[in-house]
Amino acid sequence: MEQIRTKSILCISLLSAVCLFACTTGEELDQPAGRYPMTFTATVDGLTLTRSDGKDAWTAGDQIAISIDEGVSSKTYQIKNVTTGAMEPATAGDGHYWQRNTDEMKILAWYPAGESTNVDISDQSEGFAKFDYLTATATASFFGSATSSATELTFEHQMAKITCTLTAGNNITDLTNATVSIYGYTTVSFSKGIVTGSGNNGWITTTKTDRKALVVPQNMAGQKFIRVTIGGRDYFYTASSGEANLVAGNEYNCFITVTETGLDVQLSNNSLTWSDSGSQDVSTEITG
User: Fold this and answer.
1) Separation CA 82–CA 62 (nearest Å)
2) Measured in whole angstroms, how far is the alpha carbon of residue 170 from the centre of its chain?
3) In what order do the strands lie in the sheet with 251-259?
4) How many CB atoms lie within 10 A of CB 13?
5) Angle at the Cα of 79 (from 40 to 130), degrees rounded to 5?
6) pLDDT tens digits for 195-240?
7) Residue 153 and residue 66: Cα distance in Å, rounded?
8) 270 phi, psi to nearest 5 deg
9) For the whole model, what pTM was predicted?
10) Separation CA 8–CA 20 (nearest Å)
């Protein structure tokens, strides 16, 4: 009888342990951790309507990196539907999930998702969309519901944009074949949302049709900043103090009158949007 009683006690103990494990596991499953995917809404500040103006719209498969630990690690998401802006983890199931009920989480996101190292930007004659690096930051809180509102991520351009408009001055009759170059870093690196110039400064060829270029932000005062080449002859403009302190996300409009003796340049800074021809917001819901 003692042996039977011992076995009964052992069975009861095992059942209790199983019940305790099941109850504990059930309680954990009731918590947000690993259960509710984080969702985001992504827009890009100053997206323009012309392809040569950079990243003007999402395309299927575009990949965005999103970090919830200030860039230490990240998950990669990709655009799934360009019409609705739907997004999914690049690897199925490998998205971000809410971890706590009350703590605010800092979100850092960047496009493109992969690192770019020493990218040559010296020739932008055919466009510069692939050099348009975007970064977004936000804070988000979770309130214990699967229907918690999405976090809005507003992406901002990390390069500065130069737009040049040419006008013929004294003894200059034809600007059709004129080329415009901007002085700046000729290579750029982009990592975890941060743009850095690399190598030495050199000449960057603008787009052929509308004479635009993206450059790494830096102060170009005191340097030969703009070069216009006509018929094998170079005309230069040297930026004065306070004129060409290039800031990320800003567009600098250079109105250039080409004369026989040089360049007359009026430079204005448009810090609100990259385009005076309109802007387009692209809304994207990102689901983990």
Assistant:
1) 10
2) 43
3) 212-215, 160-168, 251-259, 262-270
4) 10
5) 110
6) 999 878 999 999 998 999 999 999 999 999 999 999 889 999 999 8
7) 10
8) -105, 100
9) 0.78
10) 18
